[in-house]
Amino acid sequence: MSNITDSMKKSIIVPVVVIEDAKDAVPTANALLAGGINVMEITLRTAAALDSIRNVSAQCPDMIVGVGTVLHIDQAKEAVDAGAKFIVSPGFDEEIVRWCIENDIDVTPGCVTPTEIMTARKLGLRVVKFFPANIYGGLKAITNLAAPFTDMQFLPTGGVNTENIAEFTANPAIFAVGGSWVCKKGDITAGHFHKITELCKEARRQAGAQ
Predict the structure, then answer these.
(1) Catalytic positions, please?
(2) 31-52: per-residue pLDDT in tens?
(3) What is the DSSP string of 77-98?
(4) Which letter does DSSP use for residue 144 in this model?
(5) Rg of the Cα atoms in the chain
(6) Which of 94, 111, 113, 202 is deepest in the core (most CB within 10 A)?
(7) Averaged pLDDT, 146-160
């Protein structure tokens, strides 16, 4: 397990962060750190994403910043050039995965079917994203998929929240959980960084974090 993967597991939550203005990236990172989380997945859903990654990478040495919503190889390369330390994609793209492996970049592709999981496993991955978890059967589906794939773990995103996080993290098939509920776009835009910190602390408490 790499240091980055280990940090994701220890954080329990991998925040999915949507930033509209790059000036908000560092305060958001600091708010997450104050809440006990030292990883963040900045999604490529806005024009500010790459600059946000650059800002966090340059100014927050304690934060492991990654990139999400990576849909093609060029985006992966641009994000890594900007300072992203890990790649998350909503689905499985073999070109992205192979490039990440060849360049020692942690990658977590979305896999929700046995075929996708087998393909990822064949390439050496042991952790995959399960997205959107609430649409593809949630914890029940993950538990059933984990039965034949005993050496795989899952990062469910979509439908996980403070109320049900303990149920997810108690399951040995769960590596960590992802989501935006601890750092909502509205709170970031409004500058409610203290609220983000408190949401992170509460979610980690509910998950039984030490």
Answers:
(1) 41, 129
(2) 999 999 999 999 999 999 999 9
(3) HHHHHHT--EEEESS--HHHHH
(4) H
(5) 16
(6) 111
(7) 97
